[in-house]
Amino acid sequence: MPSHNRITVNLPSRSLYSDLKKLAQKTELTLSGLVQKIVIASLRSDVTDTVFLEGLRVDTSPDEVEIQERDLTRILHSTVMRERENYTSDKRVTLNARSLVLRDYQYERLTAEFERNTQVELLNSKISNELKKTVRDSLREHVTNMVPLIIGQLGGVPDILHLFVKKALVQYYCDDHDQLHFNIRPELHVLPLIIDDAMNSRLDFLQIRFKQFKDVAVNGWDKSKYERLILIDNASTSRSGGYFVGVSLYKLDYMADEYKDFHCISIDNDTGRKSVNCMVHIHHRDVKFKRILKPFAP
Predict the structure, then answer these.
(1) Domain residue ranges of the chain, discontinuous segments joined by +
(2) Nearest CA to 203 among 245, 261, 141?
């Protein structure tokens, strides 16, 4: 490199020099090549450069990274909001993620409303995929209607609420009048979020998706949007997949983004009415169907 393009820098400590040497060896670069790449990556906003710098941070500060990891995933377990109390002091309210079993509810449909082979499948202890989807749609509507009751058990009203049907047992039978009777027992994973907390987390809570573990391992994710994906614990009982949330490369704006596929539900609280953006997640692997021969016990 020509001398007029050269910069000499005195590092502030021996330990920093030692860290750079170790990183150069690990990345198989010369010391000057590593420093040059760090400078270029810092000046650009390219995704590849961002990932490169993040990898260097992980290598140099494993303890700090562990702390950052805890901070990053903390919101998946609890979210914190501040409430004004007597206009003089702040009161912190913590809303925790939790499991919640809802009461059984019944659902009925006539077999004639579905395809002709429904009765044949019932004789073989099976019901059609079309009918299963209808039951899941009914379950989604039922859970949505239960949102005020669910929020009432949280100890506060969140801004965003994700409700995952982690497990649902559906028992059914067909009576002599070709009427299908379903008894549904849903178990939920409840994830409340305060919008300020969500904005500081870099987790994209507007794009939570169910993914197969194999698909994530083989095909990865959209690296132009996310640094990585994080599995949401206890949101599904499937052994082959689960719900993932992406770690955004940039800070997200939950105030301006569109809440597509969310239900906006008004909830009464101490300060009046508050709008909660709620999404109900149901994956077919978490809904199990079982045929019974007798009507349900009262």
Answers:
(1) 11-60, 76-291
(2) 245
Contact 180, 88 (CB under 8 A): no
Using CA atoms, how far apart are residues 163 and 213, in angstroms rounded to an integer? 21
- Contact at 8 Å (CB) between 281 and 191? no
User: Using N-to-C axis directions, what is the helix angle for 31-43 and 14-27, rounded to 10°?
Assistant: 90
CA distance 137 to 139: 5
Burial of 191 (0-12, 13-18, 19+ CB in 10 A): buried
**β-pairing, 226-231 with 241-248?**
antiparallel
Q: Which of 244, 240, 218 is nearest to 231 (CA)?
A: 244
Tokens describing residue 57: 């941070």
Q: Are 107 and 135 in contact (CB under 8 A)?
A: yes
Judge contact between 19 and 31, C-beta under 8 A.
Answer: no
Q: How far is CA 17 from the centre of its chain?
A: 40
Residue 168 buriedness (CB in 10 A; 0-12 / 13-18 / 19+): buried
| 96-155 pLDDT tens trace | 999 999 999 999 877 655 554 455 455 455 778 888 999 999 999 999 999 999 999 998
For residue 119, the one-letter residue type is: Q
Sheet holding 226-231, edge to edge: 209-212, 241-248, 226-231
Residue 35, phi then psi, degrees to nearest 5: -60, -40
- pTM assigned to the model: 0.74
